[in-house]
Amino acid sequence: MKLGLSLWAAVIITLVGVAFTAPPVVADEDRNEAPDTLGFVEWIVLHDTGVRVKARLDTGAKTSSLHAVNVEPFEKGDEEWVSFELPLDDHKEVEDAEDDNVVLHFEMPVERTVLIKRKGAESQRRYVVNMDFCIAGRVYETQFSLTDRSRFHYAAILGRRFMGDDDVLVSSSESFLAKNECDYQTLDELQAEKDG
């Protein structure tokens, strides 16, 4: 009788364990492709401008960041907006043009603001905007915090929020791995369009 009771207890424990086991993870039907693998530096095209700049893919940053100067908040209707400029000659990564002083002007709604705590320096309030950009032949939208990146090598940083949301892997040892390119305008073409 003791053996029968022990056997029943083992069967019940096994059945309870099976009943409460998590179901197997099933791959999302939309994710039947392997994730894109990009280099730690890639070209991106700012979608509203058609201008191509280098961006560093940074797994240490959560939110993406874009070089911005003269950042000024303003009200538009009941919404908070921000105007800012992106001087392309602060980063010598675009094709040479006759006019070295190309500055892109933006006005965009503010998605949120963040307070960045910096070691040994004052905290900094940054505005965050949603922007469309193209990388590796595909258009994405992600949040960019706006900050003066003139002392850094790249005008843009793409953070984990973009990589995770859009299923991107990063090679830490190689750059420019994108298999597809985005359409873009050279600075000379942009200037001719502006003058014409």
TrEMBL record:
Cross-referenced Pfam families: Zn_protease
UniProtKB keywords: Signal
Signal peptide residues on this chain, from the entry's feature table: 1-27
Transmembrane segments: none
Chain coiled-coil ranges: none
Keyword Signal: yes
Domain Retropepsin-like aspartic endopeptidase: 38-180
InterPro entries attached to this UniProt entry: Asp_endopeptidase (IPR008503), Peptidase_aspartic_dom_sf (IPR021109)
Name of the protein in question: Retropepsin-like aspartic endopeptidase domain-containing protein
